[in-house]
Amino acid sequence: MEIADLPVPPDLAAGYARRGITELYPPQAACVEAGLFSGKNLLVAIPTASGKTLVAEMAMHHQVARGGKCLYIVPLRALASEKFEEFSGKGLRVGIATGDFDRRDEYLGRNDIIVATSEKVDSLLRNRTPWLAEISLLVVDEVHLIDDPSRGATVEMVIAKLRHKNPGMQIIALSATIGNPADLAGWLDAELVESEWRPVDLREGVFFEDGIRFADSVREVERKSKYEDLDLVLDTVTEGGQCLVFVSSRKNAEAFAKRAASGLKIANPILAGYADKIRSSASTDMGKILAACVAQGAAFHHAGLSREERQLVEAGFREGQIKVISSTPTLAAGLNLPARRVIVRDYLRFNAGEGMMPIPVREYRQMAGRAGRPRLDPYGEAVLIAKSEEMVDELFDYYIEAMAEDVRSRCAEEAVLCTHILSLIATGFARERGEVLGFMDGTFYAHQGESPRALKRAVDRVLEFLREAEMITEVGEWLEATEYGSLVSRLYIDPRSAEVIVNAMTRQKEYTDIGFLHLLCATPDMPTLFVRKNDMYALDRFLADHRDELWMEIPWDADEGFDRSLKTALLLADWGDEVGEDVICERYSVGPGDVYGMVESVAWLVHASRHLAGLFAPHLKAPIEEMELRTKHGIKKELLPLIRIRGIGRVRARRLFNNGIDSIEALREAGPEKVGKVLGQGIAAQVFEQLDGVRDEIGGVGEEQSTLSRFG
Ligand code: ADP
């Protein structure tokens, strides 16, 4: 099927043609036949890299040409920027929404395509963002993530709410191959387009001793070392290909990159250039190790890397210079970096409470699907590694020949229902118990026919919790959110977190940094750090000196959760005390990417707490407001007066302060010349341009400032 014959704008078709895309891939043609351009809902369940994004893009342009507006939902922030860039510059207005959760972002409604995470869309719904009612095409990327234990329910609820709001809207759901696509398609009233077709042949095999066993052949691999994984990499690189190696942990990823680097020992000026860039931005030992590996053609990739490090590794790999990346499996979902050979080295993973467990088939598929670069590789290879002859067959059965798992709804868990039911009531989607149940009836959970009685019971328990917490009230049979309830819904925090915060704040007479941070780290919304045995000494010592500053009682049977929240709070306190990133990473065994993630999560909870304090604990509002700025910028209190100036972050503010300039007044007194000596003339000029408008006192936290900025 030729793209030129399709009802898409000629400019788009011409743009594709310039990239050599003139004919649809067979699964794409199947989408057109199934009604892509006639408003039909579609569930497209086809392998990675077989052209799903292109299908969605054509449908979006088609819609917009007819006056429609499109919402493209992605599971991860990183993917949002990737898609945003992909859709931009093709004649439509494209917007991206991933940030703060209590804004309506009305300006976004001016766009034709809005790319957003499901959490962000949920928060827009809660804040009653008007343009959502205009969405005529909803694309849900990676819809199989409905099954994800922590975020799946939000994806499902967002789809259900949007359908409820805009009954005529077209839905295009994009999915990896799953076990029960018909089930999901049935829920979405969608035509199912299912295919195993791939643009590059994929050969899947199991390596044992000195060869890869494929279903119908064996490929010999020269053994140059005692390491199977390394020899598999060298084998591909010798042939001119690249490898991705999936391992179970960050440590393993780093260790393998070192092994691969010393096995490859490539040296050239381009690699040296990448390594220099990484080294110069590296604030940690991890960054230095990465630079050393990259200099020899290998790299590791995981969530602990800083954004700059990640981008450099990806660019070096795309350019073909970095020959191998070892990575944790979490990245298989987001990373669009195909390679000739994918080695799934570790297929066992530690699951809390279960020990080492094999990863799901769907995850294996996602990793294997990265094998083979269209038009560049003659084929792709996905290789598992067996430790014994028997294991070869087992791995064939378990992964290569297995069906992907079914996708199941995650809505039955009360923890997630709690937050979603509150939002249904607060936004007027449901005004009485019957309507809550009616809405729940339109979910995938109900479609899967899982015990309606269990759902009813869960809904009742949640309503009871929300009533007791005084987040909702009942007037006759009408349910209404209280001021508290509707605030919690808009702030987009878990009602259980709000209860933990409010209960402690109303009891607490005096503000302490660590008490407050620890409280936030003890809420279900806050990810916490893993505690190792050798952390215990520092935690105990801290408690011996600072017990009185905590806002929460130390339970007599304090468990791991308590230690984790305390350790996390200490990291955040260090951040607010301007402890260097390198020291923090070393002290808590984390990477810069983790610090950033943690700061971002807590900054949101601090922000929410400020609003909650306004309602329940006005005496804590001012110090929390200060903490909000301090967390956001990673600064001590003494820098607060300076940080309000645009262009002044933690580093520049500290430099000014150390030069005796500690306030707006002091800046004025010092004058442009002296400030220029500290910050450089250009920045000084910018600062003085703004000074007229700034009062010499600590200002409130303006909503427009509420994006994280940690680079001074
Ligand atoms: P998916 O979303 O399924 O992972 P993409 O839509 O991103 O896949 O497509 C993968 C790659 O294939 C992209 O580089 C895309 O430009 C290219 N591609 C998509 N459709 C075609 C086509 N019909 N012909 C040639 N290349 C295509």
Description:
There is one protein chain. The chain is an alpha/beta fold. Helix content is 49%, strand content 12%. An 8-stranded mixed β-sheet has the order 10-9-8-17-14-11-13-12, sandwiched between helices. A 7-stranded parallel β-sheet has the order 3-4-2-5-6-1-7, sandwiched between helices. Strands 15-16 form a two-stranded antiparallel ribbon. The longest helix is centred in the last third of the chain and has 25 residues, at 592-616. The two termini are 53 Å apart. Residues 696-712 have low confidence and may be disordered. Bound molecules: adenosine-5'-diphosphate. Residues 21, 24-25, 28, 48-54, 374 line the site of adenosine-5'-diphosphate.
Question: What's the quick description here?
Answer:
By secondary structure, the protein is α/β, with parallel strands linked by helices. The chain is built from 31 helices and 19 strands.
Percent strand equals 5-15%
- In round numbers, the mean pLDDT is 89
Main pleated-sheet profile: 8 strands, mixed
- Provide the structure class: alpha/beta
What does the secondary structure layout of this molecule look like, with pairings?
Layout: H1 10-18, H2 26-33, E1 42-45, H3 52-65, E2 70-74, H4 77-87, E3 94-97, E4 113-117, H5 118-126, E5 137-140, H6 152-165, E6 170-175, H7 181-187, E7 191-194, E8 202-208, E9 211-213, E10 218-220, H8 228-238, E11 243-246, H9 250-264, H10 269-281, H11 285-294, E12 298-301, H12 307-318, E13 324-327, H13 330-334, E14 341-344, E15 348-351, E16 355-358, H14 361-368, E17 380-385, H15 389-400, H16 414-426, H17 433-441, H18 444-447, H19 452-468, E18 472-475, E19 478-481, H20 483-491, H21 495-507, H22 513-521, H23 536-546, H24 560-576, H25 581-588, H26 592-616, H27 621-633, H28 640-643, H29 650-658, H30 664-679, H31 681-691
Parallel strand pairs: 1-6, 1-7, 2-4, 2-5, 3-4, 5-6, 8-17, 11-13, 11-14, 12-13, 14-17
Antiparallel strand pairs: 8-9, 9-10, 15-16, 18-19
Helix pairs in contact: 5-6, 9-11, 10-11, 10-12, 16-19, 16-20, 20-26, 21-26, 22-24, 24-25, 24-26, 26-27, 30-31
The structure holds adenosine-5'-diphosphate.
